[in-house]
């Protein structure tokens, strides 16, 4: 009798209870619903973006102007015109559907990220070996790293990925006087890299000669970020702890403009299709978008982070992604709001933690 009771007790311990099963199902259902919500958001975002682009074109076709000798007569579009518009709109509708499905297929085609290669800087937990910035050159053949070890190291991408070695050596190594915070490759001059450092100096390096050929010393405190314009490679922008953003022209000795802000500037970047607009990530938790022809005030402010905005990047002309020390990434669509302040990001991503190692 005792043995039977013991076996029953053991079985009751090994078989999960209905409460545990239900809790597990609810947990998985919750994750599934979150993913479906993100999918739904991406779907409607893609649809609304492309619908907005074609809306004005369709409206402009609602009236057909017929010209006769010496006069212009406006008439309502005929049924043939309506049919052609419907067919044209149908093609556009399929366009955004195809665009969404293309993105969905890319998303679903990957189940995990795999490390292809690893660069070991001695003891990676040692603060003197921290890498602060990584950037690829124009043709994606080389990439450079920079950090608090005061060195810019240039590596050949294919060599790193295809050759399985424990230690990889840079093809070029350049030493700076101070700790480096950021680098940016020039989109036209393949051998030119801009850098910013902890002493407030912005420099442009010639990789082929392994030396600096331009040095800019107008910032009063540490410079966190520097960026070359893609469409105008003579233009450069930098952001500093002194609360200023400096605009530079490679053909001029000093800065060509200064934007003063109320807080430390942590990140700056040019809009990818013009040299007239930039985005600024600030320590006051906000992102500011400026038209460089009117720098007295931002034309748009993105509000939503609860701590310092440490990084901003344009994904395209109207889409920005931002990173913050509040442990979140936010995706912003500048085209969705005509106002000067946008306080609703398209999506918020969480998972990273802003914790100090060691």
UniProtKB/TrEMBL annotation:
Pfam families: WD40 (PF00400)
GO biological process annotation, one example: photomorphogenesis
Keyword flag Repeat: yes
Protein name, per record: SPA1-related 3
Entry keyword ATP-binding: no
Superkingdom assignment: Eukaryota
Classification of source organism: Eukaryota, Viridiplantae, Streptophyta, Embryophyta, Tracheophyta
Sorted UniProt keywords: Repeat, WD repeat
């Amino acid at each position: 009798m005792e043995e039977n009771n013991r076996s029953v007790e053991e079985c009751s311990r090994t078989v999960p209870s209905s409460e545990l099963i239900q809790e597990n199902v609810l947990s998985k259902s919750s994750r599934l619903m979150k993913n479906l919500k993100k999918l739904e958001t991406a779907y409607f975002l893609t649809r609304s973006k492309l619908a907005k682009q074609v809306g004005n074109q369709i409206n402009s076709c609602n009236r057909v102007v017929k010209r006769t000798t010496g006069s212009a007569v406006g008439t309502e579009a005929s049924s043939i015109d309506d049919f052609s518009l419907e067919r044209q709109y149908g093609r556009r509708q399929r366009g955004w559907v195809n665009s969404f499905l293309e993105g969905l297929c890319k998303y679903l085609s990957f189940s995990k990220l795999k490390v292809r290669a690893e660069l070991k800087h001695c003891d990676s937990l040692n603060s003197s070996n921290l890498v602060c910035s990584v950037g690829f050159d124009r043709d994606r053949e080389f990439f450079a790293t920079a950090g608090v070890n005061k060195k810019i190291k240039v590596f050949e991408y294919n060599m790193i990925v295809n050759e399985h070695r424990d230690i990889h050596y840079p093809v070029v190594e350049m030493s700076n006087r101070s700790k480096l915070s950021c680098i940016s490759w020039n989109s036209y001059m393949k051998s030119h890299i801009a850098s910013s450092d902890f002493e407030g100096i912005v420099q442009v390096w010639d990789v082929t000669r392994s030396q600096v050929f331009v040095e800019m010393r107008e910032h009063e405190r540490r410079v966190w970020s520097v960026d070359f314009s893609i469409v105008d490679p003579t233009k450069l922008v930098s952001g500093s702890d002194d609360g200023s953003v400096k605009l530079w022209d490679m053909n001029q000795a000093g800065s060509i403009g200064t934007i003063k802000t109320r807080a430390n500037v942590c990140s700056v970047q040019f809009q990818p299709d013009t040299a007239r607009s930039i985005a600024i990530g600030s320590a006051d938790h906000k992102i500011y978008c400026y038209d460089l022809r009117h720098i007295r005030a931002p034309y748009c402010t993105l509000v939503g982070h609860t701590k310092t905005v440490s990084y901003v990047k344009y994904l395209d002309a109207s889409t920005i992604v931002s990173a913050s020390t509040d442990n979140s990434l936010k995706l912003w669509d500048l085209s969705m709001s005509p106002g000067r302040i946008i306080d609703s990001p398209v999506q918020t991503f969480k998972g990273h933690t802003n914790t100090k190692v060691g």
